[in-house]
Amino acid sequence: MESTEHDSARQAAAERRRRELLEAAERIVLRDGPDASMNAIAAEAGITKPILYRHFGDKGGLYRALAVRHTDALLANLRTALDAPVLRRERVEATLDAYLLAIEARPQVYRFLMHPSEEDNPSESGFDVGRHSAPLLRRLGEELAKVITDRLDLGADAELKARVWGHGIVGMMHGAGDWWLRERPCSREELVRQLTDLLWGQLASVEDRTGGAGS
User: Fold this and answer.
1) How far is the CA of 186 from the CAs of 66, 104, 180, 182, in angstroms?
2) Enclosing H/E stretch for 52
3) How far apart are CA 164 and CA 182, in angstroms?
4) What are φ and ψ of residue 152, in 5° steps?
5) CA nearest 209: which of 131, 127, 138, 148?
């Protein structure tokens, strides 16, 4: 019994310490973006780099942990937007806006997750952001497909159609959001409106499982 309690306490302490290290890493990422280094993160956390490696393995391990943390938060916001008790076009707009607001609010975190630093030469460091960001986008696509399946009656081949739409929408949001964040050619609201117009064709023609209005 004492051993079990001791193990549970040790696990809780390890999880708390890992969360503290991720928070320290996030502060550095918010400051330095893609140039955030393991040395700077270790210094922020008040530990040595070998101890940081002990927790995450390498920069790729730290990246994956931060990606999970931010993807979970983004998915929660997307689900909230999709569940809003409003007309479907407004839900689509809210969902697109939730994604764009997330990257606008923390652009340095977005750049760290999606764009490699000039320092991160895969042949030298073993860290390739593109190799790690692809699973993040795939996870967003699969999760959005599940939400679409749950909320819309897509008829025949519903699962395939939902996955096509899920990954297509995520790809569109990522591509358009990346371009918009770099160039800022218009307001976020205008981009949301334009992307919603693009999506609105076929999406407006299917029925809600809840029987809600589509227009």
Assistant:
1) 29, 13, 8, 11
2) helix 49-56
3) 27
4) -125, 140
5) 148
